[in-house]
Amino acid sequence: MAYFHGPWFVTPVEIPSQVGRTFFKAEAFLSSISDSNPLLSVVGKCSVLDMTDYCSLRPTMHVENDVYCCESLFDEGKRLIMPLNGSLKKYQLSAPVQKDEVYMFKRTITPEKETLPPPTPRTVSSPMLENEDSMDAPPSVGSVESASPAPMKKKFDRKKLVTAYILFSADVRKITMDENPGVKFGEISRIVAERWRQMTDADKQVYAERAKKVNEEKEKEEIRKEAERIRMEEERKRNQPPPVPSPGPVNAPPSPLARARHDSGLK
Fold first, then answer.
1. Predicted pLDDT at 253
2. How far apart are CA 99 and CA 46, in angstroms?
């Protein structure tokens, strides 16, 4: 199974209510959380632009409803919206990659902000779900980068770990989308999370065992790669050519005067 790693983006309706704050109609926030997800979880694509690009251009490969603007960061630990430090990260594509077509506006636009309606109360009570980190469920406190993690030893990066919930979501997300055509991505995520809550502990344990096996295999592969890297490094050092000795001082032949003095015993 292949995985990809990257940050989350969240919309205003997916974060705690911000009383008195207004939002752009198509606003998204860069989350402070990054994690790994299986490629099977990809269900579509959208475009998130910083404000300068959002006001001046559009990628033609995306419909307008799938284009978002971003000027703020959402700190998952503090549950606060903070100014974005700089702009969004932009990737340099290799030569074989075909760049998306971009339409440039003749004049820049000025998006307007609006106030969201009060959120609908939702009852969430599942300790087991809160302990699962995934692409759908809110990350646990221990996975928030801004929080103080408990000291523990790990053999490889925790961000690469696969959880039981990630495997469950990969199994049921496509089925959930087929059962709920036209439903937005965030709502699909909430439906998947609710199905996870309704599962028995025994069923969750099945996914936990699968996740354990996947992580063990990944750890073995990481150890193998590290051992191979060390072996190659040691072999490179052994095969280095011996250092060339530096030439000593070159003694110039004595001058005729010096030879005469030497022969006559003069100093």
1. 62
2. 15
d(CA 39, CA 218): 16
225-259 as b/e: b if 16+ CB within 10 A: eeeeeeeeeeeeeeeeeeeeeeeeeeeeeeeeeee
DSSP-derived 3-state class of residue 134: coil
Cβ atoms of residues 44 and 185 within 8 Å: yes
| DSSP-derived 3-state class of residue 202 | helix
Q: What is the pLDDT of residue 79?
A: 85
CA distance 91 to 88: 10
Cross-strand pairs, 4: 37
Q: How far apart are CA 68 and CA 50, in angstroms?
A: 8
Q: E strand or H helix at 99, and its extent?
A: none
CB 52 within 8 A of CB 87: yes
Residue stretches of the chain with pLDDT short of 50 = 121-156, 267
Q: 170 to each of 18, 23, 41, 176, 250, how far by Cα in Å?
A: 32, 32, 5, 11, 75
In which region does residue 265 sit, left (phi positive, over 0), alpha (psi from -120 to 50) or beta (all else)? left
pTM more than 0.90:
no
* pLDDT value at residue 131: 41
* Residue 9 CB partners (closer than 8 Å, separation 6+): 28, 29, 30, 31, 48, 68, 70
